[in-house]
Amino acid sequence: MKVLITGAGGQLGQDLLRVLAPRHECIGWTRQEFDVTDRRLVQERTAWLRPDAIVHAAAYTQVDLAEAHPDDAFMVNAFGACHMAQAAAAIDAKLVYVSTDYVFDGRKGEPYTEHDPTNPLSAYGESKLLGEKFVRAFCSKHFIVRTSWLYGKHGSNFVTKILAQAERRKELTVVDDEVGSPTYTYDLAECIGWLLPTERYGVYHAANRGWCSRAQFAEAIVRLGGWDDVRVVPIRSDQLALPAARPAYSALDDAALRHAGLARMREWQPALKAFVQDDLGYSRRKERDS
Ligand SMILES: NC(=O)c1ccc[n+]([C@@H]2O[C@H](COP(=O)([O-])OP(=O)(O)OC[C@H]3O[C@@H](n4cnc5c(N)ncnc54)[C@H](OP(=O)(O)O)[C@@H]3O)[C@@H](O)[C@H]2O)c1
After folding, report:
1. To bridge 176 with a disulfide, which of 40, 88, 136, 234 should be the other Cys (CB 3.0-4.6 Å)?
2. What is the average pLDDT score of the chain?
3. Measured from the CA of 61, which atom of ligand 1 is nearest?
4. What are the structural domain ranges in the chain?
C-alpha cells in the first residue's frame, strides 16, 4: 500500500515511518512540507500523491498552551482533520485519525470503552473531539484511534523529562491523582499497521495495556534508568495548578481491537522497559556504571 503520514516530524510520525516502511511504500510529510490547516494544499497534494491510506498523526499537542490559544488548537486538530477527511474521501483512501484519551472527563473510574460518552475537560480535548466528528462525517473509510500518554525516541515527553530530572536530582515530585495508560509510540505504530490492511472501520482504543498513576510511572522510569537512590514524592495535581484540566482516570479498554480479532498491545511495563533500556540504551549505562 502507498501510505501518507502527516506530522512525520513528530514522535509518533517518526515511529510510523520506522515501523511501516518495511511493509509499505511510505511517504512522510512534516509540518514544513504539508501544513494540514491549508485546505487547498491538502487537497491538491493528496490528489497528486493518491495514497491508498493516510495516517493523520499531525496535531497541536501542547495541552496547556491550547487553553490560551484555543483557535490554534482547533485550526490544526479539528479543521486539519476535516481537511484530511475530505481529501481522503475524494481519492477513496483509508484514513487513520489519531485521537486521545482527553476526549473523556475521567469520572468513570474504570477503563473507557469505545462506546462510552465523551466529555472533554480542555480546549485540546475539545479540538481533538471535533476532529473525530469531522472524520466520521466526511470519510466513511476511517479508523479513529484513541491513544494516551505517548512517549517515543523522537520527542520530549514524560519519560525523557523524568530521566533528565533523575540525572540532576535525588527527589522528584510527581502527581499521583492522574491515572492512565502510558503508551510507546513504536507499539502504537505497530497497532496502526495491523488496522491498515483491514476494512474494519470505526473507533479503536489503542494503548499499552494496564494503567498507573503518573507517580507510579515516574517510579518505574527511574528504576529502569538505574537510579536506586532517586526518590519519587507523590503530590496532588492541584498543587501544580496547570492551565488545562486533565482527566483523573483515563485508562482505555481495547474492546474494539478484541472484537475485531486483532492482536492486542502489550502491557505498559515491558513496553517501557524496551524503550528505556533498549531504545535509549540505559541498560548499557547501568552496566557501565556498575
Ligand atoms: N503526546 C501524547 O501524549 C498524546 C496522547 C494521546 C494522543 N496523542 C495524539 O497522538 C498524535 C501524535 O502525537 P505526538 O505525541 O507524536 O505529537 P508531536 O510529537 O507533537 O507531533 C505532532 C506533529 O504534528 C506537527 N504539526 C503541528 N501542526 C501542524 C500542522 N498545522 N500541519 C502539519 N503538521 C503539524 C508538529 O510539527 P511541529 O513540531 O513543527 O509543530 C509535530 O511534528 C496526535 O494526534 C496527538 O493528538 C498524543
Report:
1. 234
2. 96
3. 20
4. 2-156+181-210+249-267
Is 243:185 a contact under the CB 8 Å cutoff? no
Q: How far does Cα 216 stand from its chain's mean position?
A: 20
Assigned C-alpha cell, 104: 473523556
**Please, how many CA atoms are within 13 Å of residue 83, restricted to the half-sphere of its CB?**
25
Residues pairing with 241 in the sheet: none
Using the mean position of ligand 1's atoms as its centre, give its distance from the Cα of residue 23 in Å: 23
Of 134, 157, 14, which Cα lies nearest the Cα of 84? 134
The Cβ of residue 163 has, within 10 Å, a number of other Cβ atoms equal to: 18
User: 287 falls in which pLDDT band (50, 70, 90)?
Assistant: low
**Beta strand spans in the chain (E):** 2-6, 25-29, 53-56, 94-100, 142-147, 150-151, 171-175, 179-180, 183-184, 202-205, 212-213, 231-235
19 grid coordinates: 515501523
Gap from CA of 127 to ligand 1 centroid (Å): 13
Mean pLDDT of 241-260: 95
Minimum CA distance residue for ligand 1 atom 4? 150
> Would you put residue 200 in left (φ > 0), alpha (ψ -120 to 50) or beta?
beta
What is the distance between the alpha carbons of residues 148 and 97, in angstroms, rounded to a whole number? 14
* Radius of gyration for the alpha carbons in the chain, expressed in angstroms and rounded: 19
Question: Which position has the grid cell 483515563?
Answer: 250
Structure-block grid coordinates of residue 213: 498513576
**At the topology level of CATH, where does 2-156+181-210+249-267 sit?**
Rossmann fold (3.40.50)
Residues annotated catalytic, as ranges: 124
What are the residue ranges of helices labelled H in 139-281?
A: 158-168, 185-195, 214-225, 255-259, 268-273
**Confidence class for position 288, pLDDT limits 50, 70, 90:** low
